[in-house]
Amino acid sequence: MCFPNQPDLSGAGVLHQARRDQVADACRVYSASSRKRRVLTPADLKHLVVDEDHELIYCYVPKVACTNWKRVMMVLTGRGKYSDPMEIPSNEAHIPTNLKTLNQYTIAEINHRLKNYLKFLFVREPFERLVSAYRNKFTLKYNSSFHKRFGTRIIRRYRKNATQDALLNGADVKFKEFTEYLVDPATQRDGPLNEHWQTVSQLCHPCHIHYDLVGKYETLEDDSNYVLRLVGVAESLRFPSYAKSTRTTDTMTAQFFSNISTQQQLRLYQLYKMDFLMFNYSTPSYLRLD
Questions:
Q1: Which residues in 94-113 are b (16+ Cβ under 10 Å) and which e?
Q2: Is 122 helix (H, G, I), strand (E, B) or coil?
Q3: Which pLDDT does position 2 carry in this prediction?
């Protein structure tokens, strides 16, 4: 594989070099954890999907086209079993046994793959991703498992005079209550955040793992097809084009944030700050941080 040892001087090559530099700079300047050389444990590697045939590692981030990327990885690793990613049902893409993750290897095998395989991840504006996760997990009827698991806990903690029904089913969590839960020190003590709202820096460890490519949700198709070109499968496989009318937008995100206090906004920004800095997302204009 010619990448990334030989410099790629195309427009895309320069763009991806700039993104890698941005991550490295943010890690050096802001991340206290990156200064303490922390040894990654197998648990840290469960989001890294491995494709042996194409020597590829993809760190999936929920709410950043991860269903479609998992479908593509199933086509790549399926040895002919699948040819069209969109024929794979979305629930099948999320069955853990359908893809192999890096934590299933020995330490020596992990190190070999981290050193030699092409590694990539996809990121999204942090608050857009957060609102997208909230809308998906707390406002849709079919996500009752999330309502039971998180909604009931959130309502019990943060809603005064909650009805019995709300306490039992957790089905109508307000965005304001969800953000209270996220910034509450008690939540941090309970252990890592759920993957749908955990920070990218905690899911994929970009200060410890040197990613060759940082794709962005905002340029999803271009970046995805660039990855497929690098691994030599662009002739036979295209990333599914994506036109979802319900997609969470910047305007929508601003609307959600207008309902929470300045203090809450500031604490949320602190929580996701590394993701903003690492991936070069500017502080949203709607935030009241002064």
A1: eeeebbbbbbebeeeebeeb
A2: strand
A3: 47
Give the separation between CA 149 and CA 169, rounded to whole angstroms. 9
Largest CA distance in the chain: 63
3-state secondary structure of 123: strand
Q: What pLDDT, in 10s, does the model give residues 231-275?
A: 999 999 999 987 667 788 899 999 999 999 999 999 999 999 999
pLDDT digits (tens, 9 = 90+) for 65-99: 999 999 999 999 998 899 999 999 999 999 999 99
Who's near 275: CB < 8 A, 6+ residues apart?
123, 126, 199, 200, 201, 281
The β-bridge partners of 56 are: 51, 118
Q: Tokens 């509450």 belong to which residue?
A: 184
pLDDT digits 0-9 by tens, 7-22 = 565 788 899 999 999 9
Give 246-250 contacts, CB < 8 A, sequence gap 24+: 247/132, 248/128, 248/129, 248/131, 248/132, 248/135, 249/128, 250/125, 250/128, 250/284
Residue closest to 136 by CA, chosen among 106, 178, 191: 178
- Cα–Cα distance, 144 to 148 (Å, whole number): 6
- Taking the domains of the chain in order of start, what are their residue ranges? 7-126+199-246, 128-196+256-279
